[in-house]
From TrEMBL:
Residues 105-318 form the Nucleotidyltransferase-like domain. It comes from Gemmobacter caeni. This is Nucleotidyltransferase-like domain-containing protein. InterPro entries: NTP_transf_8, NTP_transf_8_dom.
Length: 371
């Protein structure tokens, strides 16, 4: 494990705060007044829309009440000075070889952030999210990341409805403002729905953006509209575990792009699951090896620095039943021995034998607790 200087970790944390604060200040200075509203016993902040040409603009969702958001909406720093400071901070972090997105990913992230996607609790997942964990945790990951030519953005369907807000333009139009070559790739099941948003060169995909949404309950059509994002999302199993209780981060592009990413311990445990779903082809097996490298890199530091958080999410995942346990334990079997043993020592629930013949009945008496 290669630790970063404490000064680098502190600089990154300061940039996260300044980037999120700056995004709220810019929104408020564009016109409007913050107000708090109680919904089902929980307080949320919104921005009352200002008047434009005799019409009141739509109210904007700011987020659930808490010390951070109260600080961000009451700060009144000089935005020009703050922007200069943020540019210098991003430059310093990149000079320290902290991972940063490729230019296309950076532009897409910046555009989505300005459009409000992360304010409305969209969550970046995949390798772009993984890049943020090194400075967040104060370590340098060797050979565990890389550019992938895609970007994944996830949101709970319930949150997409509950925020009562949306992007100003539909999702495809928002992406076209980054590069007019973005096109909607229709679902093979329902041509009226979009499966992927992509830039193609000939038949090859040069860059793609996927909207994702958790699939819970019985199997059904795998594409659904997300109201807040004004686009279609792919429904995926296990995603609800990944994006629950997301965390604030910043991507090192431009001024520093405020984004939301999964909690690192959830990302690591989720990678163990998906690594066992990618075994059909040589390409999918390569992705599975990458999943395990990322999980191992994260767990090595998390077991030392955030053991109780790992213990909580590991046992939460195991408690969801035999199907989850089988994938988790087989995924853990692909980790280096010290990491695997450290993780398995945290197990508090009764587990099945992951290598048991699935055709034989499980006589352990452990009920399936999937939800």
């Amino acid at each position: 494990m290669n630790r970063l200087p404490v000064s680098i970790q502190t600089l990154y944390a300061d940039l996260v705060d300044k980037s999120w604060s700056g995004s709220y200040q810019s929104l408020i200075e564009s016109g409007g007044t913050p107000y708090k509203q109680t919904i089902k016993g929980t307080d949320f902040w919104y921005l009352k829309g200002g008047m434009v040409n005799g019409y009141r603009r739509k109210d904007r969702y700011l987020g659930p009440d808490g010390p951070e958001i109260r600080k961000w909406i009451t700060e009144h720093e000089n935005l020009r000075d703050v922007r200069k400071t943020r540019i210098d901070m991003v430059r310093s972090l990149r000079n320290a070889r902290i991972p940063a997105p490729d230019p296309v990913s950076g532009k897409v992230l910046s555009t989505l952030s300005e459009a409000g996607a992360f304010r409305m609790r969209g969550v970046v997942v995949g390798s772009v999210a993984f890049q943020t964990y090194a400075p967040m945790l104060g370590v340098r990951f060797e050979d565990a990341t890389g550019q992938t030519g895609d970007l994944d953005l996830a949101q709970f369907h319930s949150i997409s409805l509950a925020v009562d807000d949306s992007l100003q333009e539909d999702f495809l139009t928002t992406l076209k403002s980054v590069d007019p070559r973005f096109e909607a790739n229709p679902s093979p099941i329902d041509g009226r729905r979009t499966l992927k948003y992509a830039i193609r060169v000939g038949r090859e995909i040069e860059f793609s953006v996927d909207l994702l949404c958790p699939l819970r309950g019985p199997e059904r059509e795998r594409v659904t509209p997300l109201k807040a994002m004004r686009g279609d999302a792919q429904l995926l199993r296990y995603l609800d575990f990944l994006i629950y209780q997301e965390t604030n981060a910043v991507s090192l592009y431009g001024l520093g792009v405020p984004v939301k990413v999964p909690a690192p311990e959830r990302y690591a445990v989720h990678k163990l699951i998906v690594s066992q779903m990618r075994i059909d082809t040589a390409d999918s097996q390569a992705k599975a090896r990458k999943d395990l490298r990322q999980a191992s890199a994260l767990l090595e530091v998390l077991l030392e620095d955030r053991m109780y958080e790992v213990q909580e999410v590991w046992n939460e995942a195991l408690s969801r039943g035999p199907s989850w346990q089988k994938k988790l334990l087989r995924g853990a079997g692909g980790l280096p021995s010290p990491v695997k043993e450290g993780l398995l020592r945290l197990t508090e629930v009764r587990v099945i034998d992951p290598f048991r013949d699935p055709e034989k009945p499980d006589l352990s008496g452990d009920p399936d607790k999937t939800r």
